[in-house]
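Ticket opened by: R.M.
Priority: normal
Category: complex prediction / small molecule

The reporter submitted a protein together with flavin mononucleotide and asked that the result be attached to this ticket for the collaborator who will pick it up next week. Submitted input follows.
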Amino acid sequence: MNLIAINGSPRTGWNTARLLEKVVEGAQAAGAEAKLIHLRDLRFTGCISCFACKRIGGPSYGRCAVRDDLKAVLDLCHKADSLVLGTPFYFSAESAFMRAFMERLWFQYYLYSKLKKPLSPAKKSTALVYTMNVPEAVMEEYGKTAVVKRAQQIMRFLFGSCEVLLSCDTLQFDDYSLYDTDLFDVPAKQKRHKEVFPEELKAAFNLGMRLVAG
Ligand SMILES: Cc1cc2nc3c(=O)[nH]c(=O)nc-3n(C[C@H](O)[C@H](O)[C@H](O)COP(=O)(O)O)c2cc1C
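Result attached by the on-call engineer:
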């Protein structure tokens, strides 16, 4: 068994990355090979709408034809037994890194067909990890619930299953006094980071174990 985790946050040591590191550790503890890939380290674009992945009889049918740094990552994802995509919310959507990745991952498999199944490899256990500033109670109000649901539906459609792990009300800075912001209850955020985030890290570890257990 092997698991690939994709970090859509440009920060490689913060909330999203730390949760994904735990997913990877959980998968490894269960005996699987697991790897975390940071999208910020790669040079790539979103889907360029070339339709080579849909061209009947074409050499890239069912696979993205764009040759940039994402090619090798998409190949790894294609072969992986488990796939985890993690992203912060940026203006109530996935980060631009993650959106571009999702376009490339999803569109190669998606068919404009009422009859045929998508071209994705049979089954994969998958999960989405979303981190965000807002508390869970207002996710719906800020349009975030629908975004998560939509991505989960697409992942399920393509790969058969998709779990979701949310980390809300995250700590964004080590020292809030250095930045121009008065929006947050900083002591409450720090308390949550100390008390709740470790529980989310445990949940991420368990998620990694579960995903590779089949
Ligand atoms: C450009 C930008 C836009 C953001 N937009 C939102 C948002 O719409 N909603 C939200 O809850 N948090 C928003 N945030 C906060 C991040 O989603 C949150 O701090 C997240 O946990 C950061 O992930 P990271 O620590 O892995 O980088 C935004 C942050 C940035 C930098």
